[in-house]
Amino acid sequence: MTKIILDAMGGDNAPGEIVKGALLALSLDKELKVVLTGDKQKIEAQLAGQRYDGARLEIVHCSEVITNDDVPALAIRQKKDSSLVVAFKMLKEDEEAKGFVSAGSTGAVLTGALLRVGRIRGVSRPAVCPILPTAKEGKVLLVDAGANAECKAVNLCHFAIMGTAYARAYLGVKEPRVGLVTNGTEEHKGDPLHQEAHELLKNLAGIRFVGNIEGRDIMSGDVDVAVCDGFSGNIALKTTEGTAAAVMKIIKKYITSSFMAKIGYALFMRGTFKKIKKVMDYNKYGGAVLLGIEKVVVKSHGSSKADSIAASLLQAKEAADGGIIGNIKEMLSEADLEAAGAVQE
């Protein structure tokens, strides 16, 4: 049985969709146990009339909530009985707790994970790592997608190491292909940071570095891990999500633009478009793992509904069961950054 803690009060649709997501995850995986942190009365109101295995669902009452309006560092220190802080305390102290999921404030989740759970020794910077679909029906990890707006070359090396460990633990890829996102595929392309990072990654033991890639290559299916600084990664992620949403709207517009288009869709293309929509739906991929923390932490979209929360819980469980934390530690111990020319922070 794998215990995952869930912030029941985090996100735009809390606690309703969060609780529904927990119940859905429990129904999909009989080896999952979920601990809900939050207002017990509100949580129980959502559970009323629902069928679930009470032995695998626990509620820990909390009287406070950290919102997007709170200053993250201040809130983590002051709101000690918030659903987020209590969850992190449990994650840190309970050996049986293997992971944590929240759709709450991104800043508070990142800050709380660092302050309350701690960084893996040897990791210079934790990184946000979402999963994206590829054109070859696979998945790609984007590291970093927003935790570090400014980076050094050694940080990008650590992102590559952690991304490789995650791809092995979660995607099941034995030798993940790592690409460095910059403005051209040639070795000399990019600013000084990316040029230096390229040279380091070429000589870094333990990873399969395939060279520079451009933004258009992230979802090509030619790499399993796309490494970038948090500023570029966040723009790439948001652009990808926005483009996917725009394309679906354009398709819907033209499908309904004429009688013949509607007939063609109904007779021939309905199934195809449903498959496309399913592939592009971020809800099925769960959330973004915060790599570099001593236990598995998954940040779900703030607008997450039940399906996305359930996917995030299963994602956290699978990453924990796959030994991602141990894999990262092992790879860090084996990687000779000094030999590659990297200077530790």
Q: Indicate the CATH architecture of the domain at 1-118.
A: 3-Layer(aba) Sandwich
> Treating each run of at least 4 consecutive H or I residues as one helix, how many helices?
12
* Helix-strand pattern: EHEHEHHEHEEEHEHEEHHEEHHH
* DSSP E strands, number: 12
| Strand neighbour order, sheet with most strands | 3-2-1-4-12-11-5
Q: How would you describe what is shown here?
A:
The chain is α/β, with parallel strands linked by helices. The protein has a domain at 1-118: Isopropylmalate Dehydrogenase. It has twelve helices and twelve strands. Strands 3-2-1-4-12-11-5 form a seven-stranded mixed beta sheet, sandwiched between helices. A five-stranded mixed beta sheet has the order 6-7-10-8-9, sandwiched between helices. A hairpin with a 4-residue loop joins strand 11 (288-291) and strand 12 (296-299). Helix 6 (153-171) packs across helix 11 (324-334). The protein is globular, with a radius of gyration of 21 Å.
